[in-house]
Amino acid sequence: xxxxxxxxxxxxxxxxxxxxxxxxxxxxxxxxxxxxxxxxxxxxxxxxxxxxxxxxxxxxxxxxxxxxxxxxxxxxxxxxxxxxxxxxxxxxxxxxxxxxxxxxxxxxxxxxxxxxxxxxxxxxxxxxxxxxxxxxxxxxxxxxxxxxxxxxxxxxxxxxxxxxxxxxxxxxxxxxxxxxxxxxxxxxxxxxxxxxxxxxxxxxxxxxxxxxxxxxxxxxxxxxxxxxxxxxxxxxxxxxxxxxxxxxxxxxxxxxxxxxxxxxxxxxxxxxxxxxxxxxxxxxxxxxxxxxxxxxxxx
Length: 299
What we know:
Blueprint: H1 39-80, H2 120-123, H3 136-139, E1 144-147, E2 150-160, E3 167-168, H4 171-177, E4 182-190, E5 193-201, H5 205-214, E6 218-219, E7 237-243, E8 246-254, H6 265-295
Antiparallel strand pairs: 1-2, 2-4, 3-6, 4-5, 5-8, 7-8
């Protein structure tokens, strides 16, 4: 039965399927089902299909944009790393290049070695270099000296160019023969033992060395400035040595006039201390002049 609507062509019914547009089974058993199509349902289904189609078109377009973007990004990465691409197709990150030792800067050094510092002994071995002022007070400064805790009071000092006049025995002629220019003396005393140290100055080291090797007699003891006569008409300890162009001599004995024997350790100690002091003072002259030469322009 129909109600004047359009007639849908009838197709052969297949098993398990219903012709398109034919009345669906009534979901409500017992109720009367109309024989005409549900036009509103058909329109709603058509609209739903249209909406799904539009969503598929929009989603497909967005997916296409993403695919194109990915292809472009891949092309950029491939282009930037084309030089680092290995044979197997992998790409080595360009930010982690292997260091090249050949590009590492290396320090350079001058092949010219600096000159050695001046030798202090060079300055006290010849008068051409030994130009520092020289006096008895400069060589024997202060009023006392201390050696390893042993304090010595200084007595008189003197300086003369008449070397033979301040020597005893054969030493006077030995000094003159070897070209002595000056003798500087100073006396020190401690606990009844006095010592005079005399420094003879020559022009060269060779002259001073000969004077030391030939030494006989001794330096004349120097009294005064609180020290009485000593080493007169008695036995005293005499010693000689040299460094550079300087020969130095000591004469030590008791202020009481007592004779010195090998058992008198105190006298030997005084002689050792004053001999060491003379050596140190002469060498200090060389050190000071060498230091000044090292710091001077052009040296």
